Amino acid sequence: QVQLVESGGGLALRGGSLRLSCTYSGNIFSIRVMGWYRQAPGQQRELVASIHNRRGDTEYSDSVKGRFTIYRFLTNKTQLLDISDLRTEDTARYYCHGEGIATPDGIQDYWGQGVQVSVSP
User: Fold this and answer.
1) Which of 6, 42, 50, 55 could form a disulfide with 35 if both were Cys (CB 3.0 to 4.6 A apart)?
2) d(Cα 5, Cα 85) in Å, to the nearest integer?
């Protein structure tokens, strides 16, 4: 079983920077893709960044491309999301996510509890 715990976030000024961290426990190699989702009040949860666990390929949503950078460090089971040039529309709760590898029982999704990011104008 994999568990995810986020840290970081908080209140920041528009144009500023933040770093979110996600630490995995359990077998990290049971995760195929790591990512960050966010959900603003009244909005659907959206994927903003992802990284393939083994290959290191990254993908970003158009709304964050060029401002968000995702990293993963397999040795210490950590995933980071660096956010720069913060905008008020980045205000949301951010969730660490792990998509499990395919098994005969299906694909398991793992979620952290989320951290709040609030950007003031």
Assistant:
1) 50
2) 25
